[in-house]
């Protein structure tokens, strides 16, 4: 079905279930799941040049600038030229989308359109394991032991920008930056938006869409 390598992106605000959707697509269709957050954490751990730079911004509670995140992602994409891939968390801004344009043409952009109240509730209930980036939700995906990571036994934290007061500002900031990116992909005819409040209800529609572009790796149906 896919005579060329698939180049796909999932867009969505914090708390939209983007990571879960990406994971399911990657498993169902054999795509490389390329997460900007994962690569940033790897660079920070390795104390690479961009990692040291990114850490300085994150420690001050600032967004990592376009040129830093773009540099991380370009290095990763260069290694994956011969594979189908799916981007998660990149591009978030028009500058990042233009940088991506210079190296490839996207076939598919999935946009998760989740109501503001749902996002606010999900983010306020979200706790993370900082070293791995594992995310827990106290309502529908709690850790086995309250406040403790299931795998390492280390304490979980709530990010400052997941605290209720910061959530609204964070979502507004995402919306402002993402709007021109969404418009760009819409104008090219590659954007597909999915609305809803539950990832499990959106997933079958996403599965059907991706199936039209690339064959699933197993006979496992969307569930």
Number of helices: 8
SSE order, one letter for each helix or strand: EHEHHHEHEHEEHEH
Low-confidence stretches: none
Largest sheet: 5 strands, parallel
Estimate the mean pLDDT confidence. Answer: 90
For the record, give the distance between the C-alpha atoms at the N and C termini, rounded to a whole number.
22 Å
What is the 3D form? globular
Structural class: alpha/beta
* Neighbour order of strands in the largest sheet: 2-3-1-4-7
Radius of gyration: 17 Å
Helix content class: 40-55%
Q: What share of the residues does DSSP label as strand, in percent?
A: 5-15%
The beta-strand count equals: 7
Structure description:
The chain has 223 residues and is of the alpha/beta class. The protein is built from eight helices and seven strands, in the order βαβαααβαβαββαβα. It has helices at residues 18-29, 36-45, 49-59, 66-79, 94-101, 116-124, 164-187, 199-211; strands at 7-11, 32-35, 85-88, 108-113, 126-129, 134-137, 191-195. Helix 2 (36-45) packs across helix 4 (66-79). It is globular, with a radius of gyration of 17 Å.
List the main descriptive attributes of the protein structure presented here.
223 residues; five-stranded parallel beta sheet; alpha/beta
Can I get a quick summary?
By secondary structure, this protein is of the alpha/beta class. The protein is built from 8 helices and 7 strands. Strands 2-3-1-4-7 form a 5-stranded parallel β-sheet, sandwiched between helices. The chain has a two-stranded antiparallel sheet with strand order 5-6.
């Amino acid at each position: 079905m896919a005579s060329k390598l698939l180049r796909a992106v999932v867009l969505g605000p914090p708390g939209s279930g983007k990571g879960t959707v990406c994971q399911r697509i990657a498993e169902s269709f054999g795509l490389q799941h390329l997460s900007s957050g994962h690569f940033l954490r790897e660079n920070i751990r390795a104390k690479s040049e961009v990692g040291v730079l990114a850490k300085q911004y994150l420690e001050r509670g600032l967004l990592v600038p376009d040129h830093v995140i773009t540099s991380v992602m370009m290095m990763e994409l260069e290694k994956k030229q011969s594979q189908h891939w799916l981007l998660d968390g990149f591009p978030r801004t028009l500058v990042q989308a233009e940088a991506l344009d210079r190296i490839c043409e996207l076939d598919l952009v999935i946009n998760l359109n989740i109501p503001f109240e749902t996002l606010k509730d999900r983010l306020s209930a979200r706790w993370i394991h900082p070293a791995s980036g594992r995310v827990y939700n106290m309502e529908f995906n709690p850790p086995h032991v309250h406040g403790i990571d299931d795998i390492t036994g280390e304490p979980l934290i709530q990010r400052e920008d997941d605290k209720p007061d910061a959530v609204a500002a964070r979502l507004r900031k995402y919306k402002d930056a993402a709007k021109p990116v969404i418009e760009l992909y819409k104008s090219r005819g590659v954007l597909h938006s999915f609305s809803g409040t539950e990832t499990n209800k959106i997933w079958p529609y996403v599965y059907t869409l991706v199936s039209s572009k690339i064959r699933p790796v197993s006979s496992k149906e969307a569930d």
